[in-house]
């Protein structure tokens, strides 16, 4: 079957999911060569479909006009994915590189286990944002839910709003910046001094998200691992 | 026994409840304040395949000639949805064991041995190594809760993907690789600092139940263009329902791991007290597939304490499509070899009982990251030993199948079995030997 493609302005490839299937779209995106000239894709009528634009591995832009379901842009490499709507569970899960921009809210486990790249969420993210993150940078303009960055191993989570309960529980080396209130810190997560290198790091992440100058870096507080749970010990039994 | 006054005295009697092992464990716990962590599977005596017997052909069945008439062993896995099902020459696969837990030489040897016999190996918690991919003709990539080393490139390099929900040694449990095994390479693969204890989560981070798993599997299929079979592995606890839900979630293959299945490092109390024996799990898993009309359409792999060709044949007769071996494969490589007895004694144990795999001091060079110990394992020779062992398992299974009149090992059936004990008869749903009585036949399972 052929994709229902229509020529669009500025050489964008437009795919209407009301008439093309998700499988056809993903298959076409997976076939893109690194030097493809089809570098801008516009997706209409996503209607909350799952696994939309999952497994991309090309330097292209995929702009989705509407809400997406679970695992949008999962395991993304290289690509820019823009969601003009809300995203379901696990947007950008295990992302390796590239950029994902959700212009609405995101559900649970946004950026879960992400290894690299940047995930920006204009609205709020739900529980477990950045769970087991492994190097991804996540910027949430709104607030994040409970257990965000749970077992976060590497990367940064920047929250312009508030954080829910048990932020950074069992954290490893991920770095957390929160501008608003924190309902509670998880086991082994502590507030840390915001030194100049951390301000510079935060500034870099905000700049990448297009927010440098839009918010005062001085309003953020930094959280990280106390590293007391790095080795199993009976004295820490209350934390296990 | 008498004392100086000739008063009879009773012989000292150790408690069956507080036996020597139990007493030593209480003392160890009191001294350390920490539960015992070890590798391997359950060591207590459990109902097992030994409690089943085959009913060889006599008058009512017609046997096949050994060494003359063919008894096929090939198996096709992942025929439900995958564009590229896996074709194995023998119904015996190598279970998932991680690089990190095992040395690179051990992983290479597993790949060499399995490939020589036309079967598959499986990665583990910690990702895929080039050595493993390079030496494994067919490689199953485990998709684990920790997602250590998970990346789409390796997903695409794999021949199948195994979503690990549970493990026989610890259904419902995560894991911990102690810091002494976390070398620079292992740490880099797991995105964590060198030398810390590395926890493996017990839950997947981005799905919580079968409805979510269905969507997760759809994502994995989309990423890999629906080419690769998707396995779902569960630890045997409620295998009827877990198998049914795995099928509902879209699995091509269900892997059921009984409580004799091994682990790299888990609490002893967990290994010995959680889950159900393999023999009890097979029938329930098969029943679930049959009830759904999916038996042989969704393939079933059974693991947990498989040791010889009779175990293989019994699992297949109960309805499995293939088995997986872990601990037995390590023994074939050279694990717990008596030639290292002096080293085992220095570690306070003996050959055959060494299970502190998490400590990284394995004298056989298998469950270690110590470069000097690793040198003890020649991957070529060890691979050859594994291939020999797999060949023996296959020959033994064929021998039994021929005796039951089967031209393919998959033609073995429950009717070919009888049980030695009431417990085994009830668990495996086969008659007690010499009777036609299956305990609980009118029960639910």
UniProtKB/TrEMBL annotation, chain A:
It comes from the Bacteria. InterPro entries: Glu_synth_asu_C_sf, Glu_synth_lsu_3. GO terms for molecular function: oxidoreductase activity. This is Protein glxC. It comes from Ancylobacter pratisalsi.
TrEMBL record, chain B:
Coiled coil: none annotated. GO terms for molecular function: glutamate synthase activity. GO terms for biological process: glutamate biosynthetic process. Residues 115-134 are annotated as: Disordered. Keywords: Oxidoreductase. Belongs to the glutamate synthase family. This is FMN-binding glutamate synthase family protein. It comes from Ancylobacter pratisalsi. The lineage of its organism: Bacteria, Pseudomonadati, Pseudomonadota, Alphaproteobacteria, Hyphomicrobiales.
């Amino acid at each position: 079957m052929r994709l229902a493609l229509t020529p669009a302005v500025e050489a964008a490839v437009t795919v209407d999911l009301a008439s093309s299937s998700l499988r056809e779209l993903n298959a076409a995106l997976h076939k893109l060569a690194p030097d493809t000239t089809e570098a801008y894709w516009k997706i209409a009528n996503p209607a909350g479909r799952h696994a939309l634009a999952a497994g991309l591995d090309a330097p292209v832009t995929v702009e989705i006009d509407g809400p997406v379901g679970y695992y949008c842009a999962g395991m993304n490499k290289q690509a820019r994915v823009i969601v003009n709507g809300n995203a379901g569970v696990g947007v950008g899960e295990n992302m390796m590189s590239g950029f994902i921009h959700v212009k609405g809210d995101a559900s649970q486990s946004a950026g879960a286990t992400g290894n690299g790249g940047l995930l920006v969420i204009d609205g709020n993210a739900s529980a477990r944002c950045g769970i087991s993150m492994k190097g991804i940078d996540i910027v949430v303009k709104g607030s994040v839910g409970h257990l965000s960055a749970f077992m976060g191993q590497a990367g940064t989570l920047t929250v312009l709003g508030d954080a829910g309960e048990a932020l950074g529980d069992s954290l490893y080396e991920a770095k957390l910046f929160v501008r608003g209130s924190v309902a509670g810190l998880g086991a082994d997560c502590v507030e840390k001094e915001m030194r100049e290198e951390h301000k510079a790091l935060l500034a870099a992440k905000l700049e990448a998200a297009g927010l440098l100058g839009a918010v005062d870096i001085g309003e953020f507080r930094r959280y990280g691992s106390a590293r007391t749970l790095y080795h199993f010990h009976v004295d820490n039994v209350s934390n296990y | 026994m008498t004392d100086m006054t000739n008063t009879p005295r009773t012989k000292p009697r150790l408690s069956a409840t507080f036996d020597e092992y139990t007493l030593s464990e209480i003392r160890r716990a009191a001294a350390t304040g920490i539960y015992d962590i070890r590798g391997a599977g359950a060591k207590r005596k459990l109902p097992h395949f030994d409690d089943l017997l085959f009913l060889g052909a006599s008058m009512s069945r017609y046997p096949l000639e050994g060494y003359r008439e063919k008894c096929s062993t090939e198996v096709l896995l992942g025929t439900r949805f995958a564009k590229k099902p896996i074709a194995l020459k023998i119904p015996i696969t190598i279970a998932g064991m991680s690089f990190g837990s095992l040395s690179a030489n051990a992983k290479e040897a597993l790949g060499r041995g399995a490939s020589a016999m036309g079967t598959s190996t499986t990665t583990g918690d910690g990702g895929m190594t080039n050595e493993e991919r390079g030496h494994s003709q067919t490689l199953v990539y485990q998709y684990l809760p920790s997602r250590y080393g998970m990346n789409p490139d390796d997903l695409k390099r794999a021949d199948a993907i195994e979503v690990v929900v549970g493990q026989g040694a610890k259904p419902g449990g995560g894991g911990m690789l102690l810091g002494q095994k976390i070398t620079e390479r292992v740490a880099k693969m797991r995105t964590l600092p060198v030398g810390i204890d590395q926890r493996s989560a017990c839950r997947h981070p981005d799905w919580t139940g079968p409805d979510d798993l269905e969507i997760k599997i759809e994502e994995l299929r989309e990423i890999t263009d629906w080419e690769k079979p998707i396995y779902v592995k569960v630890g045997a606890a409620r295998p009827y329902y877990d198998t049914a839900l795995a099928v509902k979630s879209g699995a091509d293959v269900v892997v059921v791991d009984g409580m004799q299945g091994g682990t790299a490092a888990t609490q002893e109390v967990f290994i010995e007290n959680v889950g159900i024996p393999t023999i009890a799990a097979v029938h329930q898993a098969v029943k679930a597939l049959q009830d759904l009309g999916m038996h042989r359409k969704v393939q079933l792999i059974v693991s947990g304490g498989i040791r010889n060709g009779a175990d293989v044949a019994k699992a297949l007769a109960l309805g499995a499509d293939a088995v997986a071996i872990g601990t037995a494969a390590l023994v074939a490589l050279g694990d717990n070899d008596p030639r290292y007895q002096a080293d085992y004694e220095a570690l306070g144990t003996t050959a055959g009982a060494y299970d502190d795999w998490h400590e990284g001091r394995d004298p056989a060079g298998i469950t270690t990251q110590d470069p000097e110990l690793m040198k003890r394992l020649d991957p070529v020779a060890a691979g050859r030993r594994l291939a020999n062992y797999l060949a023996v398992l296959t020959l033994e299974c064929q021998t039994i199948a021929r005796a039951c009149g089967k031209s393919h090992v998959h033609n073995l059936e429950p009717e070919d079995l009888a049980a030695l004990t009431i417990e085994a008869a009830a668990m495996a749903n086969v008659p007690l030997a010499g009777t036609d009585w299956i305990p609980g036949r009118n029960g639910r399972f």
